[in-house]
Amino acid sequence: MLSVHSEQLNKTGFPTVHAVVLLEGTMNLTGETQPLVEQLMMVKRMQRIPSPLFVLEIWKACFVGLIECPEGTEELKWTAFTFLKMPQVLVKLKKYPQGDKDFTEDVNCAFKFLLKLTPLLDKADQRCNCNCMSLLLQECSKQGLLSEANMNNLIDKRAADKENSPSLKSAENANIQPNPGLILRAEPTVTNILKTMDADHSKSPEGLLGVLGHMLSGKSLDLLLAAAAATGKLKSFARKFVKLNEFTKQITGEISKSGPVRALLFDISFLMLCHVAQTYGSEVILSDSNPPGEVPFFETWMLTCMPEEGKILNPDHPCFRPDSTKVESLVALLNNSSEMKLVQMKWHEVCLSISAAILEILNAWENGVLTFDSIQKITDNIKGKVCSMAVCAVAWLVAHVRMLGLDEREKSLQMIRQLATPLYGENTLQFYNERVVIMSSILEHMCADVLQQTATQIKFPSTGMDTIPYWNLLPPKKPIKEVLTSVFTKVLEKGWVDSRSIHIFDTLLHMGGVYWFCNNLVKELLKETRKEYTLRAVELLYAIFCLDMHQLTLTLLGHILPNLLTDSSKWHTLMDPPGKALAKLSVWCALSSYSSHSKVQASARQKKRHREDIEDYISLFPLDDTQPSKLMRLLSSNEEDSNILSSPNRSMSSSLSASQLHTVSMRDPLNRVLANLFLLISSILGAKTAGTHTQFVQWFMEECVECLEQGSRGSILQFMPFTMVSELVKVSTMSSPKIVLAITDLSLPLGRRVAAKAIAAL
Asked: pTM to 2 decimals?
């Protein structure tokens, strides 16, 4: 036992923890903390990571994220993740039983280790322009993760180390306010804004407008959104703005003074919601609790009319073709008036009619009825007062351009250009400059795909907002399989996954599909022959599979392993070390999927995939036992095996397992895949011929026993046929009473009988 664990203590880097934290910080800031906590605990248990080193790895990943993330919104997201969300995650980790150790002592110990990584901390301080460590320690102390005395010791130690580090204060960044401080201050502000938004809007719309205008200036909007996202308040934030947007539909008896205020409230709420949808994903805005038949205008518009990555819109869809009289009056208004009227305007109707109006105007321009000057006047009217109109117009133009031939696109693109150029006149409405900044960022995101396809440049006014981070990462001329292998090789050499690689893997998973992705990465793993590299590869692959653990596990256990185990020409690939590594990866994935799957629904990030259904599991593993599944037919192709499976002298059906006695639903694809995998394993153990595939099965079972917590009943081993126990104890490493008790379900009378019989035969 000691020799096994002494190797572990020399190991100080844990790439899986690192990658899981990076993945979460880069892609899932809005996600719930509980699934992340459970996933981290799972990794800690499976890899037997000592608590202080586990906490250290979490903080290391946070600092690396802070250092390497792109500037702008991403930087704010990482700051919020590190300073607001991670302390909350640790608070939840603290509740898990730690043995006799005190978790706060582990946190203190982790920070002591972290202080030794001076270059990492210096680089983070330089990037954030402040003493990150000191702020983080104060935050942890506030959450009860560190005692005051320990906090002060650590802060003093860091201050002493900083004395010797190169000076960070330079003239140009002396007056830049550091993000961590701003994010920590933004958090209470979010709560206050939510309270303000709850008040009755009709009482003082001007007051509310003041608050919103203040939110739009500088980078305060992105700061507030990042703080809300990291503390789980973004959904209620978005709901409040959807409500406000609905409120602006009321126009009965409106006087000229309140017209502009209502127009602005509509515009600001609309722009903010678009911005949130683009930065954090549209699922943050959708609500399950709308009364039937009453879907708010913004949700309808976003689902049907807003271009997003991977969503193709039909420009002739009925949603773009509203009532023709409204369209005609809007065209007339845009064409004739010197500026938009604001009183008694139904903005949501204008936004729905603008697409059809643009089509009319475009046709008139194409056919020479309108001159370029009149087009300029019309586009000035569209973008001059209420920026949302321009956003809705461009949303339709983007869908329209996609359907045109290359030579027909010029006028549409020119119109997008016109709408994207801000109007610098005197009589634009209040907060115009602030609104234009958000509008430009929204339009840039909307047009990115189309502009790339048409190789067109449109200069969006650079507004200090970042250009789209992590966009367009794949090299244009390289086949995706080469990209996958080269990125994986780089990651393996380095020993950890960086956020850019995570995004490339994610894009490749979208593009190649789940089977392609999983199959090619497993091939890479099986090529590796150096022992320490295979272990590292498993740690990294497990983390990469976290991009969509459930689907990748189904593919790995349901397709890739059965193919390797039933095809004798592939058996040589399962030699040690790569075969042993694949067994480890399979068990880790099976355990993670099984434990998380029974608790939580797929996260928002995974719902976003437009996923091809992996070959229908029902046909592969039918539900009724009368019809032999494809897999069982595969197995019984050798005569001897078919005798084993159907021989009458077996006292119990060869496939009976604890899961059937516990009546686990076999309608669930994961349960079905696990049940079939264990049937396959059972038949391999009982076969008369042995080979590397038999060795693989033993490693698989050993890893299952290694990773099991004592007394966990609902684990994946419940799918193991009872008849397998007597086969397993013939394997030297498995022949001990302790192991028999670990793998049989002792809560069942049959389980106890099987265990007793196996122990008696030892």
From this structure: 0.87
